[in-house]
Fold:
Amino acid sequence: MVSVGRVARPHGNRGRVIIDPDTDFADTRFAPGKVVYHRAHGETARLTITDVRFHRDRPIVGFDGVETISAAETLARAELRAPVSDLPALPPGRFHHHELVGCRVETTGGLLVGTVRDVEGSEGVDRLIVGAGVGEVQVPVVDAICVEIDPVSRRIVVDPPEGLLELNLPAPRDRAGDAGDAE
Structure:
């Protein structure tokens, strides 16, 4: 199963909840009749969506059997998941986030950058969050930088512009006893 969203909080007094979606297809994923799953008390619980409306790109969802604010409160912060087999097919060259997490990232010259820890996105541009030694590097998922993406072999080849890989790494610490630029 893969994450498709998280319950932010209850909404109203009739058991509705606001969802922070983790999918580009929120309008089809969170539609009446669709099913999502969450973990409760060590077991997987099934939730069937009965109604939905959107407010500021976030679905406000009603679930079968969740009809009071008290029942909705029990879902607060719950991660909602769906079977991988339920995910829509994507066009060639597009990938689901879970397919990229765990991929090894290396440069066109063969230098290991690290492993994809997460994929974040905003305004249509996703970024790979790559664990690189003691820090992380954020790599935009654009054709000019990510020149090869092969989730089957768990490998992504990047051709980063100068300075990109160093941009988010922590700065080296000053050596002990170094006076620096004291005036």
Remarks:
- The domain at 2-86 is CATH 2.40.30.60 (Elongation Factor Tu (Ef-tu); domain 3).
- The helical segments are 26-29, 69-73, 97-100, 164-167.
